[in-house]
Amino acid sequence: MVDSLRRAVSTRLLFFFILGDILGAGVYVLVGAIARESGGAIWLPLLVALGLACLTAGSYAELATKYPKAGGSAHYAGRALGPAAGSLVGFCMLAAGVVSVAALSRAFAADYLRALVSLPTALVVVVFLTALALLNVSGIKESLGANVAATLVELGGLVLVIGLGAWVMVRGDADPGRLTEVGTAEQGVVGATLAGAVLAFYSFVGFETSVNLAEEVADPRRSYPRALFGALLTAGGVYLLIGVVAGAAMPTDRLANSSGPLLEVVRLAGGVPDKVFAVVALVAVANGALLTGIMSSRLAYGMAREGLLPRALGRILPGRRTPWVAIGVTAAVSLLLALTGEVASLAETLVLLLLVVFAAVNLSVLILRREGDEAEHFRVPGVVPWLGLASCLFLFTRIDGEVWLRGGLLIGIGVLFAAVNAIRARRSEPNGREAFPARRGA
């Protein structure tokens, strides 16, 4: 029986996986939201958010190269904090991924597609998720090959916006003075910058999904840090340039009140049909759903192999060597969520779920450094995980109470799920402890 995944992911494929997942579809609406919170200096909160993201990314780089397992965050937390913590983190990550795919499938069937053709939402969602699942089953190399093409289209659209915005500035129709305007009527410079940084931070999440591919990377200890930080800095550079041209080219209130702020820049520059951006946005949404679907299925596979989910989810398709059962089940749950229309209320809890994961990962780095006989791996300075943990605690304070109520329900289910696994592990010792050999050198 095949019991390992194929190591077919190169540094280049991993770079494009992470870049495509970070860029996502959010950037097309993010600029307006940041302008509303921070003012015309959109680049400043983007820069702060990039710094916050790099802190937690450093912790991920250390753990992914030290323990290149498909279980990712759940595996790290389980080793450091025990099976219950691993179950909770895995549940939060898996729940966020499945809901994200459902939300993206709904987004794909919405206004951007309607700009091109009118089709029933349910039909689009079913066809869309089925196609993504089949592509995922076909193989990790094939899936990431499609991601490279989609990411290039997505990145090309953003580069086009940067070029058009620069043209607006060159021809004298922009106001560079807006780039130094920080603060709103409600908040001063510091408060507005932090409020904008929280929103901007959301746009950088996505890098955490890549750790679930560590088992399929040809040389994770060498490739992962390069691909991770290369993708983060590339996305950060693109975001900063978008923030500069959008902030200078468009009045702040116009950006803040637009649901398609980048399209406003394109219209101001002229020469590019609106439908072109509809296509680019659809590619971005589809790419984000594909990458998140890959993450969810690999996480479910990894947790099943660790004994935290039914063993059937750990089955691998002979020949293709992809986790076909995990792919089918996660796609089916996403389809159910998308068709029931509950995705909108659940989608707002995604960030809260991911902050639980990020906090646990940063804490895990500190605990797992006590293990002896470590193999060679990437290591960040000791202050980085501490700062990463502090940044998560800070961002927790910026989450609205309404979101906490909804997110608390999901986290509560995760806690119950973790308790069941902890009881089962205790009853089946020593096998229960072997799933996550915390504080051991193995």
Automatic annotation (TrEMBL):
It is found in: Cell membrane. Its main location: membrane. GO terms for molecular function: transmembrane transporter activity. The chain crosses the membrane at residues 12-35, 41-63, 84-109, 115-137, 144-168, 188-207, 228-250, 276-301, 322-340, 346-368, 380-397, 403-423. It is a multi-pass membrane protein. Keywords: Cell membrane, Membrane, Transmembrane, Transmembrane helix. GO terms for cellular component: plasma membrane. This is APC family permease. It comes from Nocardia gamkensis. The keyword Magnesium does not apply. InterPro entries: AA/rel_permease1, APC_superfamily. The keyword Amino-acid biosynthesis does not apply. PANTHER family: AMINO ACID TRANSPORTER-RELATED, INNER MEMBRANE TRANSPORT PROTEIN YBAT.
